[in-house]
Structures are given as structure tokens and as C-alpha cells.
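Backbone-to-sequence.
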């Protein structure tokens, strides 16, 4: 029996198993105890739910040695588990992009990307235009991206300089892999929306094998 895609924009309606899947998607491999704390239950309760998810092929364990003693059992998503998160009809999207490029030429594909960029720019500007300050604008941008399915969050940068904008999921990953112009376009939009008083650098990239996309946003001296 196939599993339906998860609704990444509705955290308040998630069941216990779905909260575990989200915790693994956003936090990477974790022990049952860590996952229990993440979803507000005991480690044993989380382990029982994880065993059921493992029987469905959605999660698996990985032994990790940490010093002396028995290795710790970490849980992680399988490929099928990652597949529970929306992919924006990946196969159809990739096929359409290929046909646009082959039948109409690469210039047509660039026009398609530019049209999407213009649409995003107008929508983001309408929402962010009322937000003042880089920090609040990063937070507002994360909210927009979460509504679009990117499971985004913002937090202070670990270096203490600026912020991190983190996207734990990419609903257009297949399209972005087939044509990285989409990723280039989104980075340009972020830089434009956050303005000239900060720099935006992509530090992690799902398309290149990372678990998530992450952007380091630093204030610039003016």
C-alpha cells in the first residue's frame, strides 16, 4: 500500500508517526531518546512508533560508535521515507523541462525560469515590503518558503554573525536537479529581497547531496 505525501505546511495536524518523520527530515539521524524528546514523548514510545515505521520501509537504523561501549542506534529516513515529502510531480516536471529545452531551445528554458523569477519577485515583494530590518525579513522569508513546501526555518548563525535560513525540504528538487537555473534564480531573489545591506551565501545544497539547503545571511558594512 502506498503512503500519501505529508502536508509540510500543517504541523498542528500531524500524528505521532508523522511528527517522527518530520523530526528526522529536519534534524537528520537521531536516537529514539532524542526523537522522543523532539515530539514530546518517551524514548520507548518513540521507539515503538519507529519500529512500525520501519516495518513500512520509511525509516531504518544505523549503528554509530561513540567512544567506549556499545554503538548507539540512530534512526534515519529511507529513500521511501524521503518520498513521503512532496516533490511537485517530479517526473512530469523533468519531462516538461526536457521537452522545452529540446523542442524550443535553451533560450526558451531561460525565459521560463525568468518568468517564474518575476512571479516570485512580485509575490515576495508584496509580503516583505511591509517588514523592516534584516532579521524580521529573514523570518518572514522563512514563513513564505514554508508555505511553499520548503520546511524552512531561520536561526542565528553558529558563528554569531548574521542568520541561517534553512530549507529542510525541496519540493522542486527534481526540476532543480534537471535545471540548476531554478536554484540560481532563487538565490538571486533572496539577495534582492533581503537588500544590499547584507550578503547571502548558499552553504549547503540538496542538489549537491546535502540533507538540506542552507543560506548564511551576514550584515554588510555600509
Amino acid at each position: 500500500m502506498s503512503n500519501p505525501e505529508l502536508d509540510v505546511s500543517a504541523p498542528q495536524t500531524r500524528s505521532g508517526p508523522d511528527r517522527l518523520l518530520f523530526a528526522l527530515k529536519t534534524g537528520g539521524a537521531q536516537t529514539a531518546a532524542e526523537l522522543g524528546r523532539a515530539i514530546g514523548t518517551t524514548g520507548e514510545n518513540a521507539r515503538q512508533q519507529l519500529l512500525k515505521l520501519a516495518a513500512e520501509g520509511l525509516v531504518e537504523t544505523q549503528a554509530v560508535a561513540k567512544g567506549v561501549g556499545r554503538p548507539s542506534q540512530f534512526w534515519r529516513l529511507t529513500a521511501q521515507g524521503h518520498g513521503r515529502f512532496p516533490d511537485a510531480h517530479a517526473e512530469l516536471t523533468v519531462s516538461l523541462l526536457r521537452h522545452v529545452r529540446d523542442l524550443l531551445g535553451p533560450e526558451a528554458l531561460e525565459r521560463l525560469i525568468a518568468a517564474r523569477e518575476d512571479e516570485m519577485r512580485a509575490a515576495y515583494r508584496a509580503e516583505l515590503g511591509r517588514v523592516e530590518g534584516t532579521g524580521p525579513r529573514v523570518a518572514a522569508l522563512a514563513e513564505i518558503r514554508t508555505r511553499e513546501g520548503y520546511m524552512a526555518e531561520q536561526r542565528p548563525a553558529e558563528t554569531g554573525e548574521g542568520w541561517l535560513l534553512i530549507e529542510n525540504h525541496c519540493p522542486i528538487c527534481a526540476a532543480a536537479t534537471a535545471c540548476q537555473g531554478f536554484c540560481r534564480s532563487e538565490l538571486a531573489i533572496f539577495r534582492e529581497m533581503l537588500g544590499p545591506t547584507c550578503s547571502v551565501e548558499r552553504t549547503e545544497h540538496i542538489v549537491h547531496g546535502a540533507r538540506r539547503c542552507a543560506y548564511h545571511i551576514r550584515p554588510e558594512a555600509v
